[in-house]
Amino acid sequence: MKHLLSLFFALTSLVISVHAQEIQIQGLVRDQQSGEEIPGATITINGPYKTVVFSGLNGSYVAKQLAEGTYTITVKCIGYKPFETTFNATSEKKQFLTITLEPEKRELTEVIIAGRHDKGSDAATLQVTRRADHILNAVSARSIEISPDLSVANVSQRISGVSLERSSNGEGQYAIIRGMDKRYIYTLVNGIKIPSPDNKNRYVPLDIFPADLLDRLEVSKSLSPNMEGDAIGGAVNMIMKTAPEKFSVKANAAVGYADKYFSQDFNSFSTSASLNKSPRYTNGNSYQATMTDFPNNAFSYSSKHNPLAALAGLSIGGRVLHNKLGILVAGSFQNNYRNVNSEFFESETDNNTGEATVTSFQSRHYSIQQERSGIHTRLDYQLNQNNRINAYVGYMNLTKNELRILSDTNMQLGRVGPGTGRIQNKYRTRHDVQQIVNTTLNGEHAIGKNFTVNWTGNWSKATFNRPDEGNLNLVTGVSKDPATGNLVQAPLNLDGTSYRKFAFSNDEDKTGYVNISYRTKLGAFQTTWSAGGMYRNKTRDSHLDRYMLRPSNPSIQVYDGDISHNNFNVFNGEGTSDDPLNYSAKENVGAAYGMVKIDYQNLEITGGARYEHTDLSWNSDVPETREGKTGSINYYDVLPSAHIKYNFDKQMALRASYYAAISRPNFYEVVPHVDPSADDAEEDYPEKGNPFLKRTTSDNFDLRFEFFPHALDQILIGVFYKKLDNPIEFSLQSDKVNTYYQPYNFGNARNYGFEFDLTKYFRWFGIKANYTFTDSKITTTKIYRHSYAGGITFDEVNQTRPLQGQSKHIANLSLLLKDDNKTGLNAQLAFTYVGRRINTVSQFLNNDIWQKGFTQMDFSLEKRIARQWFIYAKVNNILNTPYELYIRQPFNGSSINGEVPHQTPGKDTYIRRDTYGANYLLGVKFKL
């Protein structure tokens, strides 16, 4: 860390010192119409000597050590007409010249398009934030390129108010916006909602998207009537790369390494011999599987030394047919390896004291290989001045191979002291493939002077496949030799509960949109009337089979490390056709909206309402006697919204907004499933369904002050308030035999806070900082279990707590060095802090499981080494910050036989700790 800090500030000092010398001409480059500063303009000064300089990130420029005389100054910038003037340099040490550039315009009937800025630039993205009708934050493609982040999920954490829920390998997976869990957020590609590859939930894992395929990432924190209404927390919109105005080729390749491989090997397994789908799915319900359907590769493991990560990307695009047709093809591939060390304590509530009691300790080791790939094509064709057609086809794939080695020490069974007792060793192999295919056809038409129509047809499909998951379960024990006092381990035996599991699901959307708008003037008011509709047909299918494997000869159960020495029989060759994850669901959503936007002098008002009708039905393959086997939910919502923006001048504005929104239950949550032996999810407890869940509704208020003082600088200060009815959260529920993870509607909740977002550049050096304070409260009934002289009593008490996933404090700080023009050097040192938050809600008083707050530091560097060639580096998780869970009550070890590792009596009860290590990437780029 010290070396990276020293390197960063040394580079900063070097560049600043170069530009700190005495100058003769300095000034600003401004936009003639808006008065805004323009970064990246090329200023050529011809005279006795020729000098070329560039306007910095704040629009300023300096030209040093000029001789006296008359100079011709030429200024060029993409999107502006060339500018030329003469200037007489006198003997004065400092002279000032402000340059104004006129935007280059092209007219399409009455629509004027000013400039041809790179849509992925910081300047273009800043304008999107400024001109949006609703409250929005955005990150540009250029900022993404030079950041330490490789996936869209990790990019999103740099935006104010956004934190992440991480996957098993420590990478970001789901966004949490303003303390609102992932269920309250939807995901868009080019403004179109996409389905989820998750076989249980609606929300889309953002780690499936490579960040280098984006033009920009937008996070909407309020909704207008023309946006779908199920985003209480907000919406994540990925604007994919579009065709540039000039032919362009960009390519990059890199290799990487994880620092854990200095001391550890990577454990792997082969998937080549496994079936792609379950035997029952492939051959029908009457098929009886045998061991020939389950080769040993899922139970056979090997080691790799020093595996290297790899990354590659390519995009090619431009315009043809006299600039009428734009074509962009882009692809990305990322392959990385992670070792994760984890400690997990299973706990339960003590019947006598009501306190959390540790029942077992698990030492877990994960070896994870992950391949992320994507390819997309965008076409746009200008038929004539009034008609335009756009097409998009995208394919995203995330493949993950995970081997988990788990040693589970029971803290009560057979335990007579430290290091003794019953021990289970479990080996689990998973091969996950998530895919999203997205196709969109869109038309934009100007009919007459003030009337426009646009339409969109979309077909998209997301699939999830986990074929032939292998679970090998072994049992042993450690006892104390009474003669010597030494600890002796028993042989490692098969315990008869090994199994193979197959999971497959798909989620398919067919969606149509139409929007019309009419512009008119009512006195002094410029008014735009809009209306539109949407219809989506969604089908979700899920399939799961679990096959129990038992030793063919019960008397021979010893495992010597080579599974070929053991023989199994399939206990249930028919599979598990009645498993609740065998279900189908259909959902039809119809929507219509009306909206009006009024412009009057410095005031902009946008308001209207949206109507949405939801028709959800499902059919589960659980037994006929199970309540909720089939069901349907049918409801409608009217969602009003209003947005007011007052522009004090060209630089300052104040926004106020209100919108109503909903959050629909996830599919699997309403399917009536319960399986105490299931190991389906990353969660540490089995899940249970709730067919009586209701949708969540909310009223949302925002107020934000915006100030854009110079070029790329910005100050955003806002407050927000959300009132939620029937929020859905998961809690731990116990039936006195098993503990389940189950969704419930928990009354009402509120969530409020404020945000501060600052971007400031000093020519080539910049600071980005944001801070979000969030405070949410929900009061729910908890069970207070305690003992008295006559036995045990269970009382119900109310407890107020934050919403699950909400952190009170979130902060980001990035130190930036950006000089694309002269030195070709970019560097970023990024810090992220996320405060503690509830990870799992318990039904018992004070037994909620919390995630500790953490700080993450990342670093990136890019340097031009030739005209079109660059080298770059990215370093992630430099501080090796762990993921830690705990219960906020003192550990009580009195009911445990002997000491418990990693627990301290009187301190918080420790539940889980995962460490990931730092990761390094070094590569080369080519840009044409």
TrEMBL record:
Residues 136-235 form the TonB-dependent receptor plug domain. It holds the Pfam family TonB_dep_Rec_b-barrel. Residues 1-20 form the signal peptide. PROSITE patterns: TONB_DEPENDENT_REC_3. InterPro entries: Beta-barrel_TonB, Beta-barrel_TonB_sf, CarboxyPept-like_regulatory, Plug_dom, Plug_dom_sf, TonB-dep_rcpt-like. It comes from the Bacteria. It is found in: Cell outer membrane. Its main location: membrane. The keyword Repressor does not apply. It is a multi-pass membrane protein. The keyword Repressor does not apply. Residues 396-878 form the TonB-dependent receptor-like beta-barrel domain. Gene3D superfamilies: Carboxypeptidase-like, regulatory domain, TonB-dependent receptor, beta-barrel domain, TonB-dependent receptor, plug domain. Keywords: Cell outer membrane, Membrane, Receptor, Signal, TonB box, Transmembrane, Transmembrane beta strand, Transport. Belongs to the TonB-dependent receptor family. This is TonB-dependent receptor. The lineage of its organism: Bacteria, Pseudomonadati, Bacteroidota, Chitinophagia, Chitinophagales.
